[in-house]
Amino acid sequence: MKSRISIIINNYNYGRFLGQCIDSALNQTVKPYEIIVVDDGSTDESRAVLEEYVDQVRVLLKENGGQASAMNAGFAESSGDWVWFVDADDWLVPDAVEQFIAINDGSFTRIHFRLAVVDKRGRGRGWMPKKGRSPRIYKPTDLLRTSEKPPFTPTSGNVFHRSLLEEIMPIPEVDFRLCADEYLMYSAIDKQTVSFIPKRIGYYRSHGKNAFLQHSLFNCDRGFLLQRLNSLKRTHGLIMKEFVDEPKYRFAFDTQQLRTVLLAQRVLGKESIPNIAPCSIREIREAYRARLRQERFLPQIIKEWAGYFIVRWLPLPLVEMAGWLEARCRMVAASLRND
User: Fold this and answer.
1) What mean pLDDT comes out for the span 110-132?
2) Category of 134 on φ-ψ map: left (φ > 0), alpha (ψ -120 to 50) or beta
C-alpha cells in the first residue's frame, strides 16, 4: 500500500540535538513524502542549525507557544496521508519509514513502535514501552475493559493516519504546552484501531534537560493544577463517556494522574473537578490499589504509595517541599546517568 508520510519535527531549544534528528529523517532508506521542522521560538542555536537545512526541509519559525502549538502548526502545513510527529531531541533509525510501509496494510488508524531509551551520549538505558508481553493489534477501549492499560510509546514512536488527526486536532494549546502526546493517545481512544510493532524504530533521548523534567509531580500551584485538570478532562473525556457505567474505568488513570486529582481536591476543592472520575477519596484509593496490582517491581510499588501518602496526608507546605525535592532529584538522577 502506498503511504505518503509527513514527518513533523517539533523543536524548542534543542539545537544541540536538532541536526541529528533532521539528518535521521533525511537519510531514510525510503524517503518520506515531506519533512517539516517547526521551531517554537527557540533562544539557543536552533535557528542557526536550521539555516543549514532550508534547502532540504520545510522550516516553520514561530513565536513560543508550547509543544501543542508547534504540532498544530506543522500539521496544518502538512499534506501526507500519515503523520509522524518527532521530538527534536529524538531520532529515527535509517529504515524507520521502510519498516512502517512494510507493515501498513491500511487497516489501522495508529501504528506505534518501540523506542530505545538512551542518554545524551547515546548509551542504552532501556526501552519504551518496556519489553514484555504487549498486544500486537488492539482497540484501546477493549484493553481497558480487561483492566489492562494500552502500551504507551512517546511522541516519536507513533504514526497517525491523517483522518484520525483531522477528527481530534487542533490540540488545545493552553492545556498541552507539554506532553501533547497524551492528548493524541487518549482523546481519540474510541476511534483507534492500533498496531503495536515491538521493533526499534528510533531513539528516545533522556538527557537531564527534557522539558517534562522541569515540572514537579507534587506541584501545588493553583494555575498548574487547573491546567492539569483541564488536560485530564480533555484527554479522558471519551474514556469516561465509554466507561461511565463500568467500574473498570479507573484503569484509564495512572497513579500520577490519580495523585493530581487528589491534590487538586485539597488545593482547589471538590467543586473544581465535577467531570472527572474517580473523584472521591475512596474511589481514588481503590483505583490506586487496582493500578498497583499490575505492578510487579517492589521498589516502584513503595515509591508510588509514598507519593500517595505525601499528597493525601502531609500539610500542603510539606507537599510543596517534597515536590521541589522530587523535581531536583529527577533532574540530578538524569544528569548523573549522562555523566
Assistant:
1) 79
2) beta
